[in-house]
Design brief:
200 residues; alpha/beta; 6 helices; elongated
C-alpha cells in the first residue's frame, strides 16, 4: 500500500483548527478554502453537514491534479433539532449560549474525501456526531464569554478547546469532532479509500 503521508492533501477550508487537527496526525495539507455558498434547504443537521462538506470538496476538486486527496468539512451545533451556526453578533452569541447552557446538545461534522485519479475520482462522505453537556452558566458568565472574540467564528458560539472548556461537563463521542474534524474517523475512511483504489 502506498504511504498515505506521501499523498498531497488539500483542505477545502480556511479553519485553522482543522489544519491543526490534521497536523496532529502528521498530515500537512495545502489550504484552499472553497468558495461555495454555505446555504442548504435541509433542516436536518446530519444532512446539512454532509451536503455542505460534499459541495466544498467538489468545488476544490475541480482544479486539483490527479493523485491528490481533497478534504471538505462542515460542522454545526444542534439543540432540540435546531441548527446553531456561527453567531452574526455578540448578542447572537449570547442567545446561543443561553440555549446550550445547563443541558446537552449535539455537534455534527460532515466530511467528504475525494481522491483524484487520472480517470476521474473516488470519494466518500460521512458524518460524525458528538453529544456535549454544558454546566449551568450565570448571565454574567454568558455575557463575559459572548462579548469576547472567541465565539465569533465558531458554530454554536463556543470553542471547546478555548476558554469555554470551563463550562464543559462532559462529552460522549469524539472530542476532535467538537473542535471541527473527527481526525480518527478521517484517517480510517481515507485508508479504506486508498485501499479500494489500489484493489481495482
Amino acid at each position: 500500500m502506498k504511504n498515505m503521508r506521501d499523498i498531497k492533501v488539500i483542505l477545502a477550508s480556511g479553519s485553522p483548527r482543522r489544519r491543526q487537527l490534521l497536523e496532529q496526525i502528521c498530515i500537512k495539507a495545502d489550504i484552499r478554502p472553497s468558495r461555495v455558498e454555505e446555504t442548504t434547504t435541509s433542516t436536518d443537521p446530519e444532512a446539512v453537514v454532509m451536503e455542505l462538506s460534499s459541495r466544498k470538496a467538489e468545488d476544490v476538486a475541480e482544479q486539483a491534479l490527479a493523485g491528490t486527496l481533497i478534504l471538505g468539512a462542515d460542522t454545526v451545533v444542534a439543540v432540540d433539532g435546531q441548527i446553531l451556526g456561527k453567531p452574526v453578533s455578540h448578542e447572537d452569541a449570547r442567545r446561543m449560549l443561553r440555549m446550550i447552557q445547563g443541558r446537552s446538545h449535539q455537534v455534527y461534522t460532515g466530511v467528504t474525501l475525494i481522491y483524484k485519479e487520472e480517470e476521474g475520482s473516488r470519494g466518500v462522505t460521512f458524518s460524525e456526531r458528538t453529544e456535549v453537556l454544558v454546566y449551568p452558566m450565570s448571565q454574567e458568565e454568558i455575557t463575559a464569554y459572548a462579548d469576547s472574540e472567541e465565539p465569533m467564528d465558531k458554530a454554536g458560539a463556543y470553542g471547546i478547546q478555548g476558554r469555554f472548556a470551563a463550562y464543559i461537563q462532559g462529552i460522549r463521542g469524539d472530542y476532535s469532532n467538537v473542535v471541527g474534524l473527527p481526525v480518527g474517523r478521517v484517517w480510517q475512511e481515507w485508508k479504506r479509500l486508498i485501499e479500494e483504489t489500489e484493489g481495482e
